[in-house]
Amino acid sequence: MSLSPNIKASLQKNAHLFLKIIPVQDLLNLLQYKEILSDRHVEEIKRYMNAYVLNVLINQRGDKEFRTFCHMLEENGTDIVKRFAAKLLADANDAFLDNKNQKTLMQVSENLLRGLPIAKGSYYVLREQFNNTICNQLKRIDQSGGHILVHGISGCGKTIAVCQAVRQVILEENCFKPCGCYWTKIGDISKQQLLVILRNLATEMGVKNAKSIQSLPEINAKIKQFLQHNPEKSNLLFVFDDIRNQEYYEYLTFPEKSIATSWFSYESSCYKSIPAVENLAYEEAVKLIQKRRHKDNQYRLEGNKLVEDTLERCGHLPLAIAIVAGLNLKSDQDWQDVIKIISTSKPTSKTHDYRLSLFHLFEISIKQLNPKHVNLFRLLGVFKAVKISLQSIVSLWQIPDSFCVLHDLMIEYLQQPIDHQRSVQQYSIILNKKLIDGYHQQSQGNWFNHPDDVYYYQYLINHAVQAEDHHTILQILSDFKWMNIKLQSDGTVYNLCVDMENAINYLRSNEIENWQRYEQLVQLLKNHESILQVKNIDLIQVMLTLPPFDIDWIKQRVLEYTKTNKHKYWQIAVTNHEKVESVDESLKSRRIGRTCNECRIAVSNPCYGNLRIIGTENNTNQDCRIVIMDYETSKIVRQITPNQRDIRNVVISPDGLIIAFKYTEIHNDQMSILHKIESIDWIFNGTKILLWWRKHNNYNMFTQCNDKKSWNYKCQVQIWDLQSWQCLKSFEVPAFVRFVSASISGSKDSGLALTSVSCINNNIECLVLKYYNMVRKFYKYGLLMLTNGDTKFIEDRNTVENNYKEFLPIFNNYHYLNTSNNQQFIFTTKGSDLVIFKVANGRLQSFINLKCSHNPSKCMLLPGDDRLLVLHSNSLYECFIQGNRLEWKMLEHDGYDFNWNHQSTTLPENVKILTIDNSVAYINGNPVGVKLVKTENTYKLKVYEVQQPSNPRQFYYTLDKPYNKCYIYDDLQSAVIVGIYGNSKNRHVVFTQLMNFLFQNQNMQHKILWRWQRNLPYDSSYNTLYVDVKESRYRKIDDTLIFVMIVKTIDEEDDECPYLVEYQLSIITIDLRHGQTMIYTDIISQDYQFFSLSEKYIYMDEYSLIMKFIGHVTAEENLLVKCYQIGNNTTQSQLIATQEYNRYKEGIACKITLPVTRFDHLQFKSSTLKISQKTYVNKQQLIEYWGEKDGHLLDKIENTYRSELFLIKKGKDFVILSVPNDRTCVRILMTGTNDTFNSLSNGGFLLLKNQNFFYHKFWIEYNNHSIYIYEKATMQLHQIIPFPYFNVSAIKWNREQSSFIVFNYGRQNCVLKRL
After folding, report:
1. Residues paired with 840 in a beta bridge
2. Nearest to 1253 by CA among 1188, 1207, 1308, 1196
3. Which tens digits make up the pLDDT trace of 1058-1116?
4. Does the CA dihedral 616-618-624-630 come out positive or negative?
């Protein structure tokens, strides 16, 4: 990688301005994210700032990085920085034009012949016939594509001949224009080394996320897909030099046009084989010697018997002749001495291995070096036979500015000991110790200080082991900063763990003290592999926020590292977790995929061989693919690029040989789901499959069409034999059902919708059907007993209904149900809880509740052992379910009958203290929490203040009656508890203030703030009232409490399918100074007849409330946006605007200007964003309606997120966001002020609830078990904090933003603060 001369001239010309103008400090995170700077560079920059960046750009980066840097300045800088970026680009272009003769040709050559070695005519001979053969084949594949293989023995000149031919056809005959070629050295390398080479090649070509790829099949497919999607690169020629392993050809299939060299021929129809001309003709050999020897050497070569004899004994091999030429032989005696040395190794056949002759010639050549350079040259034998970085050679020689290129045979020779009394192993130890000493000096005693040169971090542990240097090994195994750089360089935890395990094996075999402690570290890394594989993750930060572990030396080392850069790191001050067993304390974890759009993963059965995991990578994106990974190594063993980009589900057979996937396909602007397979499950040890599909032609599976006559409310279920591929059973089941007395009946009216069909035993005697109520959000399971007769097809619906009974009502509130292969365990999930039941004699005996950080989607007990795999999100966890670690609880009854005619019961309560609600706030700068709990028949308020994490103050208040909600607020010394009482026909709500609750006093004063009551009419016999207080705020400026309360009236005549009668939202403001209360009520359902209605909060502060309502009538989804201005003791709250829309048909854009003070008014404006379902409003139309400024801003948003946009402005600041229906957060797409804006790529990020868009310095996103902290001003990533405790749904900052509290709806919270 190097800069073009014109670009280097531009940087050097403007160096003085570069040092003054560029705001490097503000751009560090972005420079690191764009991979313009490495972690090591960032550390150095903090010392030297602009000068260091300039040096890196000039000496260590290429044209691509220069242009990326300039564009980054244009997008993120001030006006003066933007002008300077334009000047850099302009000067680079001027320098290019000023040197358009020789320099232009040089640049064109560099741009076309990427990495191709220069075979100078003054240094090499051109074998014309061999060259013409290669050139003719290159011209052929330039026109029609194809692959060429040039093969012959080592040293016969294959590489030089290919380089000469490639240079000729590209520069002189205009082949492969305008793309040129990429030259790549392969050599005798491992698969992992080949992976590194191909990742670097892909990165150089511009393939995104190439460095994170973990397998050869995947990188091969990734580059192939990149070339297919970039037709301008279709004419690229790839040159692969020296392929030693025939297996590697299958990983080099991505090019359409390639030429390779190898020692061996390769029998393949894909390659045109060209045998290399191994021997130089006499005239060619003489010409080569003349080119290579010193100019003052006049020794006669033509017709010289000694020369002829020497060439014959060298076998006319080009490499050997080149070495002889370099010896600069000037007399007959010189030539006779060479003949004498190599005479013992005269070749006996044309295919003779010339190694021995070459080794003798190497020895003669080395002896001619300056004596002080001989030892330096011999030290190069320590390296692997791969591309050796300049930095590693500098470290070995301990002198600057050194460079060399060695032939593979020279490396092999240098690895032989000089002293024949020493063994190869002894000599290897000496060489490796010398390299380790050089690395130690170069890194100034800190191993992490060495630059990442794609060799050092990959092989350091290996060299330390070969040097038998256990002191260095112990230092590296304790150096977390070094490990962090290696993790980022490799892009995987696996390589680090393998290297560490090899080092640990060495320590164990040599009985080095305390080697066991490093096994603990390796296990810790494996446990949290899913977290460590996050891009740009910091290992030190990971260690600071992992669940508590009892390894003191690791904790001590971590704290030592944080002392030098405390402001960068965050730690958990205190956490409030439910005391349950945790899946996250598992043996291993794996991350599958890279985005939150990855579909559910599946696993094979290890009884059939290696355990395989199947999942997706980059699902819904253009480069989507299905990947199959080896469980133990995390290596991708197979990948598939599907034609579809939206994969909904993937499954794999137990033996790992068959896969199936479900995808979304679009036809005529609507989804076709006719005979769309809903799921496939392998049963009977993988020899049969169970599949089913819906027969009703409707987009939404939960709603039914209006035409009842043509309505088909059935689903088809089939069981197939895979060997004969015959359908064994086929029958219909109701798509919608009603449960009556534990049995079912099909329903043409609204009912529970079928969502899954599964088999719970291998003999296929019964199936479990799961039905879902979308309004009440609950599941019901039923057991379908299949007939054992000869009937293959069950067509009578009554037969199905008569054989169907409600199955184990204990599971009806659980989302997932599965059994182990031996039917000894039942796995169920509910939210983030995983409950496992032991089964004995057909009855449930005991259970255990495991807590997961995300909602688990599937679990599987590995046959033959006690390891349980838990799948959730795009991560896979492994834990033991037997042994002493987990405490099984016996069910407090006679057990549950596993048959279908058991007595209904419920899961017993085993919790002594029940948490009802909790709240957190910062009072006097300290994080404070309250929990509303129930102990037997007593309600208490627990107060806990976080002053010292090791000894927090906490106490309880006993309450006089039951309560449902509790609230505390920043800088308010009072707590508020809310009680909701009554029955389904009448409700009343009491708001009570607890004053000075932080002072432990049982006689604490309390005051009733407000009462609310409502009774339903007597004749509304089926109607039920539901009341909930959703949100609360405290407005300090006028000492006012604000509450948002929802009241629903629902008709429950149909218990399973209730519908909405009335929905009202109330905003209550309570003036604490004067005791005045103002209530505003908006009956939302008054103008809309919704079957169901749910709400989402877009934004709320002291003066404004913006809500989004999602309503269903039939299959249509109707959306409402409502904006409220919150009043005070003199002004009533009011509804400012209401806008109804359908985001799929017309979309919506809203501009909402928020009040800054109580004297300002909220303003609302909206328009459509779509002309049709697929056609968006163009830029000109946006400008005509919204004006020049707002129209430009809205036009910059990607079409993917332009179905609904909310431009919210407050003062001089604004944000543009969308609100996903299925998440509790909002998606930030753009931020800015009146003068500047930051447009976020890749869909922005998901901002957690309760964050102020306009006042906070930092914003927080939660994704894939990690908390991402962004600096609001620049939207640059500040830190990634792994957080595997629970699924975070909201956040509360302190005023200084030096600490924050994260919490979820499961009443868990955690305080994090800066060190």
Report:
1. 843
2. 1207
3. 677 888 999 999 999 888 999 999 988 766 666 677 788 889 988 999 998 887 665 45
4. negative
